[in-house]
Each structure stands twice: as C-alpha cells, then as structure tokens.
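Write out the 3D structure for:
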Amino acid sequence: MRFEGFVTDIVAEVGRAAVAIAPLRIGGGTRLKIVEAMALARPVVATSIGAEGIEVQHGRDLILADAPRDFADAVLRMLAQPAEAAALGLRGRRLVEEAYGWDTSAARLEHLLAELVERR
C-alpha cells in the first residue's frame, strides 16, 4: 500500500489503483472523483454520503459501506478478490458511459435548453 501527496497526473494514479475509495462522512457538491474512478474501470468503495448525487446501485456499480468496519471489509474484499473487483470496475465504467458520457450529457443539455426556449 502506498499513499501519495500531490500528483501531477491524477488519471494515471487512479488508473493504477487496485481500488478507489471515498470514505466521506460529510460533504456537498458533485462527487466527480468517484465518476472519474468508475470511468477508469476502477472498483469503488464509498460511503452513502460519498456517492450522494451519483446514480449508482450498491453491489452493481460500486460498493457502499457506511460503518467503518464494513468499509474496511469491503476494501479488503476488493483487494483479495481481483476478479470480483475487475467486474465491479467494468460495471461502473458501463454506468458512466451510459449515464454520464458526452452523448448523454449533450442530450440532457439539449433537452433543458429546448424546455427553456419553449417557456419563453
């Protein structure tokens, strides 16, 4: 296990990770680091607050664990079972491609703009 401080290329670092974690207990805003890790097909273990606002399903797209022991156990399971971790990572990537990819995002934006124009 290795902990890094400042890195120049976060994508490369996350891409090399065996598992991405988001053990947030408080917070707000969008959790783009989780979406980024999922886009890189990394298995993600997060708290419910850590994954708040992202359309994910526990066990399908990532692992959600709020209790410290459950969180640690989930991370250890991903490290001990690389095939399960890889499958989770691929399912997470598929979700990102389908729900957060450029085509989907552009279509949502186009729909929103059309609604705004229609209201005027």
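DSSP finds five helices and three strands in the chain.
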